[in-house]
Each structure stands twice: as C-alpha cells, then as structure tokens.
Amino acid sequence: MKMDFWRIVFYHILLFFMSANATEDLDDPCISHLTLPNQEQRSAEYQLDIENDTAINDVMLPNGWYRFNTSNGDDMPTEAPNSLKCGTWYPIWLNDTLPLVSDGTSSKQVCMRSFKSDCLESWNIGIKNCSGFYVYGLISSTTENSAYCIGSKLVPCPYGYSSNTGFYPGCTMKFPQKTVGTVEVIVDLVPGPVLFEPYGNSLVTSFGCKFDEVFGDDGVKFVYDVQWSINGQKFILHTGKEYSNIGSTNLTESEWIGKHRLNMVVSLKDV
Ligand SMILES: *[C@@H]1O[C@H](CO)[C@@H](O)[C@H](O)[C@H]1NC(C)=O
Ligand SMILES: *[C@@H]1O[C@H](CO)[C@@H](O)[C@H](O)[C@H]1NC(C)=O
Ligand SMILES: *[C@@H]1O[C@H](CO)[C@@H](O)[C@H](O)[C@H]1NC(C)=O
Ligand SMILES: *[C@@H]1O[C@H](CO)[C@@H](O)[C@H](O)[C@H]1NC(C)=O
Ligand SMILES: *[C@@H]1O[C@H](CO)[C@@H](O)[C@H](O)[C@H]1NC(C)=O
Questions:
Q1: Among the three residues 103, 132, 148, which one is the final residue of a domain in this structure?
Q2: Which of 10, 71, 162, 168 is least buried, going by the fewest C-beta atoms within 10 A?
Q3: Tell me, what's the pLDDT at 15?
C-alpha cells in the first residue's frame, strides 16, 4: 500500500518533467509548425492567371506557425511585388528584413499591396530563422483574395507541363517533351570566297553541329536553337532553325578571326 503511494508520486513527478519538456519543444515554432508544400505560385514572380487560376486567398488561413516548402525558396519578399503577383490579387510582403538566427522569434511588419498602394494595410507577423529555413507566425488576412508572398524566383511548370522556357507563363500539357540525343561538333573545310580566279573557291574552316533529328509524337517537326561557345564563353545563338537548314548555324572563320586564336575550344549547346 505504502509502496504504491510512492510509486504513484514518482510517476507523477516523472510525467511532470516529461510534459514540461514536451511543452518546451511544442513552444518552439522551429519544431512545431505546419508545413505547406507546393506553394510555388506564392512567388513574387508568379503572375495570377485570372482566366485559369483560383487566386490564393489567406482570409481563411488558420492563425499559426507555417513553414513553406517551395522549389523557389522560403524568403518572404522584402519589396512590394506588383498587384496580381504571388498568385493572388493583393500580395502581402515583408516591409522589413528577414531575421537572423540570433534574433530568435521576431515580430515584423507586413504590408498588403493594392492596385494603387504599396501598403494599403499593415500588421505584424512572427518570423523565426531556424538556421536553414524560416517559419512564419501568420494570421489570416482581412481582405478577400490577398495572400502572403513566399519566394521571388520564376516558377517552373508543374510536372507533365512545359512551356517555351519551362517556366510560367504559358505552361501547357500539349507541349512536347523531347530530348535531342548526342550532339557533336564537327569541323571541315568548306568552299569559301574566290580569292584567285584560276583556282576557284578557297577553302575555309567551318564548325557544324551534328545530331539526329527528333520528331513529336504525331510526327511534327521541331525547330532548334544552337548556342556556340568559344573557350567557355557564349558566343553566337541561332534560334528557330529547321533541321534541314542546320548548316546555316555553322560557325565560320569570319565569326572568330580577330577575336580568337588557335587552340580555342569550341562547344555548343542545343537549347
Ligand atoms: C487558360 O487556359 C486555356 C485553356 O487551357 C488556354 O487556352 C489559355 O491560353 C489560358 N489562358 C492564359 C492566359 O494562359
Ligand atoms: C519539401 O519538398 C520536397 C519535395 O517535394 C521533399 O522531398 C521534402 O521532404 C520536403 N521537406 C519538408 C520539410 O517538408
Ligand atoms: C538565418 O540566419 C543566418 C545567420 O544567423 C543567415 O546566415 C541565414 O541566411 C538566415 N536564413 C536562413 C534561411 O537560414
Ligand atoms: C515600411 O515601414 C517603414 C517603417 O515602419 C515605414 O516608414 C514605411 O512607410 C513602410 N513602407 C511602406 C511602403 O509603407
Ligand atoms: C557545316 O559544317 C560541316 C562540318 O564542318 C560541313 O560538313 C557542312 O558542309 C557545313 N555546312 C555549311 C552550309 O557550311
């Protein structure tokens, strides 16, 4: 009986310490937060597509600590993006600097951008630098179709979609995904200008790119961009050339004479 009493007291003390530890961890937003993945469209570079997107709307965002996991970073932009950026009508941005680890949990001012004003409304949020990522203590916005901005890079098309650049805008599923196989630089002597009539054409050095033509699934032809580099420096870019006309992208003497000497390294990239 007595034994049981002390055992119960002991367990209670143990439980007390365990829960004290647990609340300490739960209080640290670096450990206890919600992670929101796939928030690419919150980027300051992402323009809301009014026709096709539903604007991100943080009016319903439950108050709490959030970590954003996006392929374009988790920095809240510290300059006002234009309206309709950040995948919403009224972007919310940080009118301050991002904190250092040593700042601990900081309170910082955010501004909501409207069509006319950089800072129609402002309020404070929490931010903590967790050494490698930030967590944000957010409160719901009071304006419909306003949202917190995260990241400032171009937004890549989602998996299975593509565009001319691989980034928004213009991402479509209809964009064919094809890769050109091995590309080689070949060099040859081709007929050049006639320097001395009796001998006909002179011979000049010409670098060409060689690869196998690729076709779309429905047999459609592609055009190609050819980027020449000499000694690692981008040199000449040809765009939109048909395969049958790829010889017109050749690198010829007139393009390097006076600029490069022997032993230059010529390379190319198809884009
Ligand atoms: C919206 O989607 C339609 C159909 O998917 C497309 O034709 C149109 O170009 C898109 N609008 C914009 C602005 O990208
Ligand atoms: C972030 O997303 C990537 C890719 O989806 C995933 O591999 C990673 O585990 C995620 N990180 C966190 C902290 O959720
Ligand atoms: C966090 O703070 C450190 C210095 O304390 C800084 O170097 C770093 O860039 C900050 N940001 C992130 C995401 O870690
Ligand atoms: C940003 O904050 C500063 C200091 O609080 C304030 O003077 C300034 O007006 C704010 N910027 C904008 C665009 O409102
Ligand atoms: C392009 O260069 C390749 C390799 O030097 C050569 O065989 C081909 O004839 C050249 N084409 C033209 C149009 O100069």
A1: 148
A2: 10
A3: 47
